[in-house]
Amino acid sequence: MPEATEPNRCRLVLIWPDNGAPDDAAARLSAALAGGDVASLILPQYGLGEDAFQALCEKLVPVAQQAGVAAVVAGDTRIAGRLKADGVHVDGGPAALADVIDRFASRMMVGAGGAKSRDDALNLGECQPDYLFFGRFGFDNKPEPHPRNLSLASWWAEMVSIPCVVLGGSDTDSIAAVAATGAEFVALSAAVFGEGRDPAEEVARANALLDSDAPRFEAA
């Protein structure tokens, strides 16, 4: 993740939700980013075909970058390269991760997901990704974070220097539990972009909660 210039505490990452490529996607993202500090935006493909996914990324990558937010394309290095995204996210295991790092690390950040255990996390960490993601895109369907992700994050943050991103729940208040693990980043998706949510208000609320509740990191 990009180097934080904001308060030295857990920062917010947004994950675009699994709702296809709606016409108002750029407006909704712009509204969210106007709500306060966001470190990065991750764009998963979900069930979109390549053309539809690239069209969505073409809408959203420039919006993020113009706001100073790193845009990370999940799963498709070709689209990430075509659009000059800031990063690519890999869920394919250590071999796939190592290959992407070898080919792209000089041009963009490379993050890793898919860890379901400590062994999984350590195997991915040996490849030296820029961050490790605990959670599964689209599985923030309960108000609270998944207990396994919180447990892995607490252990990882204490033991390993590679930053971690932890998926919060469908309620913005869930970020407090993530921040308490010592994770560098908390990811929200449904809590910000879900039906009936005001993206700007939710991002503002998330940052207010992090300002008041998140532990501060020691200076490097």
Protein model, in words:
The chain is of the alpha/beta class. It has one domain (11-213): Aldolase class I (TIM Barrel, Alpha-Beta Barrel), CATH 3.20.20.70. The chain has helices at 25-33, 50-66, 77-82, 94-104, 118-125, 147-159, 175-179, 190-193, 199-213; strands at residues 11-15, 40-43, 70-74, 87-90, 109-112, 131-134, 164-167, 185-188. It is globular, with a radius of gyration of 16 Å.
How are the secondary structure elements laid out?
Layout: E1 11-15, H1 25-33, E2 40-43, H2 50-66, E3 70-74, H3 77-82, E4 87-90, H4 94-104, E5 109-112, H5 118-125, E6 131-134, H6 147-159, E7 164-167, H7 175-179, E8 185-188, H8 190-193, H9 199-213
Parallel strand pairs: 1-2, 1-8, 2-3, 3-4, 4-5, 5-6, 6-7, 7-8
Helix pairs in contact: 1-2, 1-9
Shape label: globular
Largest sheet: 8 strands, parallel, barrel
Summed up, the helix count is 9
Number of DSSP E strands: 8
Write down the secondary-structure element order: EHEHEHEHEHEHEHEHH
Overall CATH architecture: Alpha-Beta Barrel
Spatial ordering of strands, largest sheet: 1-2-3-4-5-6-7-8
Helix proportion range: 40-55%
Pairing-aware structural class of the strands and helices?
Answer: alpha/beta
Mean pLDDT: 94
CATH homologous superfamily descriptor: Aldolase class I
Could you please say which CATH topology applies here?
Answer: TIM Barrel
Rounded to the nearest angstrom, the distance between the terminal CA atoms is: 16 Å
Quaternary structure classification: single chain
Beta-strand percent range: 15-25%
What's the Cα radius of gyration? 16 Å
Level-1 CATH class name: Alpha Beta
What count of structural domains?
Answer: 1
- Provide the low-confidence segments as ranges: none
